[in-house]
């Protein structure tokens, strides 16, 4: 089984800033969210055999607080957040017009120049998930990542969604889970909407 979690809250999340690949740590709320998710997993009897994380601190800290110190963290660059290029750090309460148009219609409006394409996000998350499939057949795996990267994974896992995950709000420390099947993966389910 694979459990995909978005990192806990950061000061930038709280301020409504577009973080992207900027490397900020969790704030106290984010650390508490991750601790609560870790407690939830333990209450459900889930013990991780492997933990993979984006290289960014907020994802690494989330993974460590959820999984505890018994399982080593494995950093995988493919789990990093979308590259927002020149829009990194933008105030989401007053976005640039081209970003606003993109956010209003991810399916039909391409990412503005300088941003990573959504198809590239989906492709790298898909490559990661395909590599994980043999391991996930027999083990419980935690994957700590970011909002858009997580949406890319969900899009890969659910081709019939036709882009519907891009506009979905995924809260800090929300958890989706899926498992390998003979032909791919089960449709992911929202297991915990965030704490």
Helix content: 25-40%
Query: Which superfamily, in CATH terms, is the homologous superfamily?
Result: Phosphoglycerate mutase-like
Q: Given the helix and strand composition, which structural class is it? A: alpha/beta
- For the secondary structure, the number of strands is 6
Question: The biggest beta sheet, please?
Answer: 6 strands, mixed
Helical element count? Answer: 6
Assembly state: single chain
Task: Write the CATH architecture name.
Answer: 3-Layer(aba) Sandwich
Low-confidence stretches: none
CATH T-level fold name: Rossmann fold
Please list the strands of the largest sheet in the order they lie side by side.
Answer: 3-2-4-1-5-6
Using only C-alpha atoms, the radius of gyration works out to 16 Å
Number of domains: 1
SSE string, helix = H, strand = E?
EHHEHEHHEHEE
Distance N to C terminus:
21 Å
Mean pLDDT: 96
Shape: globular
